[in-house]
Amino acid sequence: MCGIVGYIGSRNAYPILIQGLHRLEYRGYDSAGVALINQSGDLNVYKSKGKVAALEHYAEEKDTTGTIGIAHTRWATHGEPSDINAHPHYSQSDNIAIVHNGTIENYAVIKQALIGHGYTFRSDTDTEVIVQLIEYIIAQNACSLYEAVLQATKEIVGAYAIAVIAKDNPDQIIAARRSSPLVIGIGNDFYCLASDATPIVEYTKKVVYLEDGEIAIINRNEPLKIMTEQNVESKINICKLRMSISELEKGGYPHFMLKEIFEQPKTLLDCLSGRVSIDGKNISISGIIDNKDKFLRAERVIIVACGTSWHAGLIGKHLIEDFCRIPVTVEYASEFRYSNPVITDRDILIAISQSGETADTLAALELAKSRGAFVFGICNVIGSSIPRATDSGCYIHVGPEIGVASTKAFTGQVTVLAMVALTVGQLRETVSNQTFEQVATDLRRIPSLIEEVLKLNDRIHDLSKIFTYAHNFLYLGRGYNYPAAMEGALKLKEISYIHAEGYPAAEMKHGPIALIDNEMPTVVIATADSIYDKTVSNIQQIKARGGRVIAIVTAGDQVASSIADYAIEIPEISECLSPLLTSVPLQLLAYYIAVNKGRDVDQPRNLAKSVTVE
Ligand code: F6R
Questions:
Q1: Ligand 1, atom 9: nearest CA belongs to which residue?
Q2: What sections of 325-432 are H helices per DSSP?
């Protein structure tokens, strides 16, 4: 949510900052801006409503020289998307510029105080308050930029990752973070910084992840200095990025989302690799083995997550209850964090997050941790805030997910949850060897089976044309596939803007059936599972009311396919793993309907990928 980039070095900063903004555009894209200090010492700020391309267009004829700069792509929180509210914001004197990701809760109080001191404000943002406060502190105390930022961070309450430059200090960027991510890249003769590593990887693989409360003093041609909020120098912990640039490109696909759907055979292979043994007899998740006692004595599992990750969590509940016989609750992180949950030291909290930065999930896990739970993370982005805040965890290793609609991360999360459930079940001796081996062997088959499912691409593309103009969709599933139905509905609504709801199939007759007519298509997941016959009855109930049904069925199906209007066959697999296959045609259906409607598939309106604000 909002992306920030900075550069200081020997090269012209502007192209690096713009390229960085393109990489971070998935975090927000309602406006963008850049601030540069040129050779003459001018601080030039250019900003524009709209996407980064609009900023580039706006800056075309302007002076974009300078070897130091900061830039921002915005997802509006305070103040509508506009040129004025776009970042960077600058201080009253125009001497200091700031970019910010996060929200400042006490901005109104500080703003009033600054107005009392004669400051005027140009924008409606909370961010402008920070830069004015920094200028005020410098004026009052005749202190350095670093000292003023340090002081300001003590006065502001909320979440922030900021980068600040000042006209009279063209050799320095000051950056700070609390609850919003910030990564600093270290090159031979430059530093760059960004909200995540994607803008950095093409320049250097050496990075430092700033910790909460830390402030970085980034001076040109000098060693990096990182200070704590107590003004004590921190030890610099340099990490090596494993990401490659090709992972950040579309690779010939028209959209990242389609690329990411098609990557799933490979991403799941990476996710399983080194974890499930060839004979299916062993699964090795070090985050569990190293904390064996916690999992052995656990009395309850609480899963917290948001959106798609929450849907994966619902599948995780079935898996863990089936294989580990531990009761599991699945909570929306945003609700959990403000509840007063009963937690004991025999609880295990599993936090699921693709980005590893979702503010609500982070707050939920911190609450559980403070009350004694053991916290296990399932994340994708390496080095992000959630894995760093957990006691242990397991990365899904599906590579950067750039399309705003989550696809490969969902299947990665479900795959890890299946491995976690089997591993803990084996430890607790609650899963039979036969079931363990059957499911573990099936897990290894998943990449090639998804390969098969992807061959349905053209057929689903054709089908999408029939349903592009529907105004509402219902998605039904049962058991393991009820969350898959909800996930299918979420995919459709977020990228096509068609209203869609996911329901447990049997609940349909308690209300949603009233909506059924020949204009409202229903997607029913009717795979050959333990309650197949019941799902078939639900299809019949829809058909009896003139509804149109797309059924996702198991290869060779006779009954559901003959009643439904359209049937999509997926290969046979253990019931508990079937969402890994049923979710793929639903991803493709949502994708093609959105494309048919001319939607901005990778950057749908109002959404951002990394939700670092409440
Ligand atoms: C939907 C989607 C969102 C995210 C949610 C949580 O396609 O991407 O619903 O799943 O914002 O994000 P993470 O998993 O990063 O915590």
A1: 307
A2: 333-336, 359-370, 385-389, 408-428
